[in-house]
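I'd like us to work through together how a protein chain folds, taking it slowly. We need material for that, and I hope you will provide a protein of your own picking. Go ahead whenever you are ready, and we will take it from there:
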Amino acid sequence: MKIAAVIDNEGNVLPLPDGQEIIIYDIEGKTQKKYHNPGFDLETNRRSATTDFMAQNGVNIVCTVPATFCPVSRDKAKEYSLKFIRLQKGAKFQEVLLNIDKYLSLSTDDIPDDELFKRVKL
């Protein structure tokens, strides 16, 4: 089983397009690897590109903070059968790993609409 998050230099979990790095932790192998976030450099479809990358790399669970997913990327994640660990803004990925059993028990199949990113129309 693999858990992923988009993180900043301090290891804080960020919304999908906001960080340059994706960290993927393999629970069975107890290994982690960092990747460049393909959604970070894009102008459009940033969240979807990051979601695709995670699914293509065998991720099962994504750590989320509010505004991590938009409605389109959330639906795509659900199509990939990804689960979510919902966290508060400012949460650290290492904290999840230190308490992995607790966080796995809190994983969910969906994210409420009020936690999704919503594009502001001008």
